[in-house]
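Box S1 | Example of a co-folding query
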Amino acid sequence: MKPVIYVTRKIPDHVLKPYEDSFDVRMWDQEEEPVPRDVLLREVKSADGILCLLTEKVDKELLDAAKHLKVVANMAVGYDNIDVEAAREHGVVVTNTPDVLTETTADLAFALLVAAARRIVEATDYIRKGKWEHWSPYLLAGSDIYGKKIGIVGMGRIGEAVARRAKGFGMSILYHNRSRKESAERELGAAYRGFTGLLQEADFVVSLVPLTDETKKMFDQDAFRNMKPSAVFVNVSRGGAVDEQALYDALVNEEIRTAGLDVFDQEPIAPDHPLMKLDSVICLPHIGSASVDTRTRMLELCLDNLKAVLHGEQPITPVR
Ligand code: DGY
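Box S1 (continued) | Returned holo structure for (2R)-2,3-dihydroxypropanoic acid
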């Protein structure tokens, strides 16, 4: 008998096809709507593996309900939606999708940085609203990028990929991380700073930290007050790393200039959320890794991880 996997969102047939001999696939039938919790709790009872997204909470309740579960493949590099400790206690392997999304997510981080600095969205709206009448010297003038300092908080794979882009743009690179990254210092000329030192010195602050107890709301009122009034803040990691009220206050009180956000504390962010009302903020619906090729690679990596574990092999990208 083939192992049973439950896929928590409808994914394309062509992605599943190469795996049809490996599993008996059961799947939630909606592409955009997450699987309701009661359906998930029912489906996991008979599953040997699940392919889930960051919209699903894999917690003790779910792990207790799952009688045969051996592996959870999370379609994301971040795994704060999973109680990894509880999974370990239940003997369930957890895998994520590092590497395959690094460059795509770094592209989006840089796109937000450039768009926020050069007021790209505001400028498009300016034309749409029929406001463009003349060329003028300081019309929609933003901040330069070349020659400025980027401060990357969280120098993992994506951080290094952002640093490579920054180097190409003629920026100097500061970083803060739990441990020093000698390769980034040697190859990219990145300079390590303490958190406060980086905030005080950087023109652009980019958050790439995973969400953990240590990083929860690390960008708080003090952090924004330490930034330059001209600072551009970019977050492409997790919304929970930011105190959104403090960010809002910092923008309104002109303690920082602008922000580019791909992630929020509560997702989806409400269209009438105070941050959405500020011209100085660009908000995106968590699309850091959203290119067709990368999303397909992420799904394939999940399926390869499920296949490996359910066929008695080592997972390719386990969460340790
Ligand atoms: C991740 O991988 O953690 C992203 O947030 C979704 O691509």
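The pocket of (2R)-2,3-dihydroxypropanoic acid is lined by residues 76-78, 101, 288-289 (CB under 6 Å). The chain is about 35% helix and 15% strand.
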